[in-house]
Amino acid sequence: MADFQSQLLRGHLHSFEVLPKVFERARGPAPSAILPGMAEQPSIAIVGAGNLGSALAISLRDADFRIDAIITPARAASLARARGLASKIGSRVLAQVEGVQARILWICVPDSAIAQATASIASQFEGRGRVALHSSGVLSSDVLQPLRAKGASVAAVHPFMTFVRGSRPSLAGVPFAIEGDSRAVRLGRSIVHRLGGKPYAIAKKEKNAYHAWGTFASPLLTALLAATEQVAGLAGVSPREARQRVLPILLQTVRNYGEFGAPGGFSGPIERGDVATVQRHLEVLRRSPIPRQVYATLARSALEYLPAKNKTALKSLFDSANRSR
């Protein structure tokens, strides 16, 4: 933990560049991903060349898996991304699964496209002896039923990580939630181990809540940071300057959360019960209504889950702010 803390804060304004290295752990000899009935390291075909599919394909290549093909629709933008990815990993681009030799098919398209992609693949897919995976955090492995009906063993293998264009996070230390058929789950766990990740079992009924948790942890956190830029503007600070100046306190907050938990890492006027200061905040935020709503809602949440003084007076303030939207 001490090493984690020192790395997380080192460099202040350059700390986001350090973060992938912070979570990366040295890997020992990787366990084999070979399953009974597979005479050699299985090859993999990736369906989709978006942010997740691209990052996963490169990480798999770096872990010594052979990527047989990148499968993508025959649309100009999709083909261009797929060809760029294939050139990086020594693979090829196909518009359909016919001709794919890989024993593992890993579907990395958006959640809303998985069912349609699966139906299309199933029409030209021989599943006996093969494994089909998808990486949706919210859908269960049952969305791959058409491939299961063709003889494939199926599973959902979802990395608890964010993937954006221009960034390829390390998968070392990343939790992967896995559920599905036993054979596909065993293979999925073995692959995750080789990637340096941490596989764990999840029940199908838990996936909606699991995905909502991930949405709080990353995209909604980004939405909060976007709101902070609006508040910085009230203080005469540009969005670019705000992004740089906020890093030290933001990263220290993450460090405190990791070391002490949410209650121990909570500080500021709400924790102190400083009603007058909170009133000043709500007053100035009248000039920026959406961040004011965010402030009041999160502060109200803090009164429920975190230590704070003068809770009755603060609750009245926040309830009033929420009513005055």
Structure in words:
With 325 residues, the protein is α/β, with parallel strands linked by helices. The protein has 14 helices and eight strands. The protein has helices at 2-9, 15-23, 51-62, 76-89, 111-122, 145-148, 182-195, 207-217, 219-234, 239-264, 269-272, 275-284, 289-305, 311-323; strands spanning 44-47, 67-71, 93-94, 104-107, 131-134, 153-159, 175-180, 198-201. The protein has two domains: 31-205, NAD(P)-binding Rossmann-like Domain (Rossmann fold, 3-Layer(aba) Sandwich); 217-323, no CATH class. α1 (2-9) packs antiparallel against α10 (239-264), α3 (51-62) runs parallel beside α4 and α12 (275-284) packs parallel to α14 (311-323). It has an eight-stranded mixed β-sheet, sandwiched between helices.
